[in-house]
Design brief:
6-stranded antiparallel beta sheet; Thiol Ester Dehydrase, Chain A; globular; 25% helix; 27% strand
Length: 224
């Protein structure tokens, strides 16, 4: 039985590490393992950094037709090779390397942790050209995606059972600029049973660019 009525949860889902091989976020390390022993090994971080740079360069470029055709062939060639290396979700490196900034993935701009409290985190992010919406501003969807990433990861910390996003409300207060180091802050606002309310902010110096409030629900046993 779920004890949500009295503020406890006795029938909850297994931790992410058991389910998909990912330890708790924001630890900065993977317990009992060296980078060479983790999915992707030591070579994974440089690959992701190169891929982030590639996506930014691609977004900002206008190559001629000959170069575009050549690039397409190279991308197709590498895609063909990577299809031979497909693994189950529990074994993949993409998004599972919590020892790396941004979890070793490029779907979301890399959040760089600079501080952590019992129920809060602070860090920096720089949105590259890949996340441009227009006129130098970050795409609003990318801002929401970053909030979901950071708040969602924080929601699952301190040995809490894994959760899913139930609601995310974002307020856009000022232009969030591409290419600028920004400060990100997030913390728990309230927690009751399976319900976890968290808030986050993105700052450009003294200017509040955006803030968000999210509700995450801890999963029960058997839920995905």
């Amino acid at each position: 039985m779920d004890g949500e009525a009295d503020g406890t949860v006795t029938d909850h889902a297994e931790p992410w590490e058991t389910r998909i091989g990912v330890p708790e976020s924001f630890t900065g390390v993977h317990p009992d393992k060296e980078p060479s022993e983790l999915p992707g090994g030591k070579a994974w971080a440089p690959l992701i950094e190169a891929l982030r740079g590639f996506l930014d360069d691609l977004a900002g470029s206008l190559p001629d037709q000959e170069r575009t055709v050549a690039l397409t062939r190279e991308v197709e060639k590498w895609s063909t090779q990577l299809r031979q290396d497909q693994v189950p979700e529990t074994l993949q490196a993409f998004g599972h390397r919590v020892d790396l900034d941004g979890r070793g993935q490029v779907m979301v701009p890399a959040f760089v942790l600079t501080g952590r409290g019992p129920d809060s985190v602070e860090g920096t992010v720089t949105f590259g050209r890949y996340f441009l919406g227009g006129h130098g501003a970050v795409h609003g969807g990318a801002v929401a995606l970053l909030f979901d990433e950071v708040l969602g990861r924080l929601s699952d910390t301190s040995s809490r059972p894994p959760g899913r996003t139930a609601n995310l409300t974002v307020n856009y207060r000022a232009v969030t600029q591409v290419g600028k180091p920004l400060t990100v802050r997030a913390h728990f606002e309230e927690e009751s049973g399976r319900k976890r309310y968290l808030v986050g902010e993105i700052w450009d110096g003294e200017t509040l660019c955006a803030d968000a409030r999210a509700l995450f629900l801890g999963l029960r046993a058997g839920q995905d």
